[in-house]
């Protein structure tokens, strides 16, 4: 079971929900998120396995995917300046498996803001709300996320951080 319309933000580099045309969330790099790349279909409400980590949630304030497995830490939300607020499904994300044409690797957990971000460009670590102007700080598993191959590019709104 999965939910579509999860996208890469071309500005801050996090995974955010892009399924509501009226809401694009809050980007740590300023303004709303900008969707770029694949349309991801993320698994939820399935059992955790040795290669699939549970406790990933949607933040109803900034619309990013964040890790909600530590009761004492909820990360940094760019919408409020406070912690992320978990809503909706409990996502179970595959990690440390071979990449295929139907999925993309290099997704990581940011130890500072707790968000899921793309770590596939060593020169650009995005914008981390917990440590502006520095980028995200990768930790833990390397997530390999399923997508539908649909690519969206809004290059006019992408900025380099």
Describe what you observe in this structure:
With 161 residues, this protein is mainly β. It has one domain. It is built from no helices and 9 strands. The termini are far apart.
Which features does this protein show?
disordered C terminus, single chain, globular, mainly beta, 161 residues, 6-stranded antiparallel sheet
Strand and helix map with partners:
Elements: E1 2-9, E2 15-17, E3 35-43, E4 52-59, E5 65-67, E6 86-94, E7 103-110, E8 116-118, E9 138-152
Antiparallel strand pairs: 1-2, 1-3, 3-9, 4-5, 4-6, 7-8, 7-9
Distance between the termini: 35 Å
What is the 3D form?
globular
Q: Quaternary status of these chains?
A: single chain
Share of β-strand residues: 35-45%
Helix content: under 10%
Mean pLDDT: 92
C-alpha-based Rg, rounded: 14 Å
Structural class: mainly beta
Poorly predicted runs of 5 or more residues: 155-161
**Main β-sheet, in a few words?**
6 strands, antiparallel
Helix segment tally: 0
Number of domains: 1
Number of strands: 9
Order of helices and strands: EEEEEEEEE
Q: How is the largest sheet built, in terms of strand order?
A: 2-1-3-9-7-8
């Amino acid at each position: 079971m999965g939910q579509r319309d999860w996208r890469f933000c071309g500005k801050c580099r996090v995974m955010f929900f892009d399924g509501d045309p009226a809401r694009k969330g809050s980007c740590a790099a300023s303004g709303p998120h900008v969707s770029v790349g694949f349309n991801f279909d993320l698994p939820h409400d399935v059992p955790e396995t040795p290669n699939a980590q549970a406790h990933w949630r949607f933040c109803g304030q900034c619309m990013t995917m964040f890790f909600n497995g530590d009761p004492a830490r909820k990360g940094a939300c760019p919408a409020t300046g406070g912690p992320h607020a978990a809503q909706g499904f409990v996502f179970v994300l595959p990690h440390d498996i071979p990449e295929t044409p139907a999925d993309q690797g290099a997704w990581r957990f940011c130890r500072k803001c707790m968000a899921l971000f793309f770590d596939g460009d060593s020169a650009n670590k995005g914008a981390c709300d917990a440590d502006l102007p520095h980028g995200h700080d990768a930790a833990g598993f390397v997530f390999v996320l399923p997508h539908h191959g649909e690519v969206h590019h809004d290059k006019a709104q992408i900025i380099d951080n």
